[in-house]
Design brief:
With about 110 residues, the protein is α+β, with helices and mostly antiparallel strands. The protein is built from two helices and five strands. It has a five-stranded mixed β-sheet. The termini are far apart.
Length: about 110
């Protein structure tokens, strides 16, 4: 069973964590199932960037991003070549190392 290593995040997961991931499960679903409150303002419909994450290892094992995902990622704060939307990136049979960026853009919610 593949695993996702979430790197430490100051607010969401200070110690980081390693979690089992089912093949075909999204990064966001693994995070939520394990109590990591990764924001997802559009309810996983690829219509925002609040679940933006950076896949530090295992990026090439993911299916290519769709045009819709690429369009949304263009709006993400801190975009990197290995950026994906957690609601769209599905785990295959390879382990992933994922970093949750410090900031996301949520125009619907004020901080």
């Amino acid at each position: 069973m593949p695993k996702i290593v979430f790197l430490p995040h100051q607010e969401l997961l200070p110690e980081g964590g390693v979690f089992d991931a089912g093949s075909g499960e999204t990064i966001l679903d693994v995070a939520l199932r394990n109590g990591i409150e990764l924001e997802h303002a559009c309810e996983k419909s690829c219509a925002c960037t609040t679940c933006h994450c950076v896949v530090r290892e295992g990026f090439d094992s993911l299916a290519e991003s769709s045009e819709d995902e690429d369009d949304m990622l263009d709006k993400a704060w801190g975009l990197e070549p290995e950026s994906r939307l957690g609601c769209q990136a599905r785990v295959t049979d390879e382990d992933l190392v994922v970093e949750i960026p410090r900031y996301t853009i949520n125009h619907a919610r004020e901080h």
